[in-house]
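Hi P.,

Sorry for the delay on this. The queue was packed all week, but I finally got your sequence through. Input first:
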Amino acid sequence: MVGRRVANEFCLALAFFTRLPIPARTQYSPQAQQRAIGYFSVIGWLLGALLALGLWGASQIWPQPVAVLLTLVLGLLLTGALHEDGLSDMCDGLGGGVDHAKKLAIMKDSRVGSYGALALILSQLLKFCLLLSLPAPWWALLLAQPLSRTLAGSLMFVLPYVRVESAKAKAVVGEWAWRDLLGLLAGGGLALCLLPWPLALTCLLLLGLLFIWLVRFLTRHLGGYTGDCLGAAQQLAELLIYLLLATRLAGGPVWPM
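Then the structure:
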């Protein structure tokens, strides 16, 4: 019974966060859908594995720059550009709004403004350059996906949700249990355990600082978070991890793998 419930909740999370197909017998309920956030980092592991495999396969056929670019396209297809859309919307809203209400209204607008377009172009270009600079970009993809989603999901436990009229968000916004938080953190903790301990501590420190900054920033500008903010947080955390792994000290990458 427990195994069936967990499998059902995971499938609902998979349907919410990705474009991957789920079994037709999956049963929806608001309570089960609210558990989706607890599987956010697990979804990250699945996406990371698919992207790493895709990069490896593409690199056997095409030059590395082409393989990395195709892998980024694969990521957009797997998630439906869910988090990239959040980054774009948040940049448009915070860049063009003068108060909470105006910022939220702009973020809800489906049109892409100049701030959002620039954020998308620059973030994807930076991802491409950083992954291309790494000696083992497939490993970076595998680790960054669950870690970045752990940070993004953790915001839901400390900030209030500010767009109460969103029907889609209502499906996953609710009263969280310790099980949800532990499930989320376990996925990120596993990724840190696979890194050399100095690098793991540095990564944890930088992600912690980003988390604190996001909490303060979103509280000041919006009074809480929206789904777009979570997508933006995931993108920022992913870029931060790639930046760390690509950092050069003493003429070589800080991460030797």
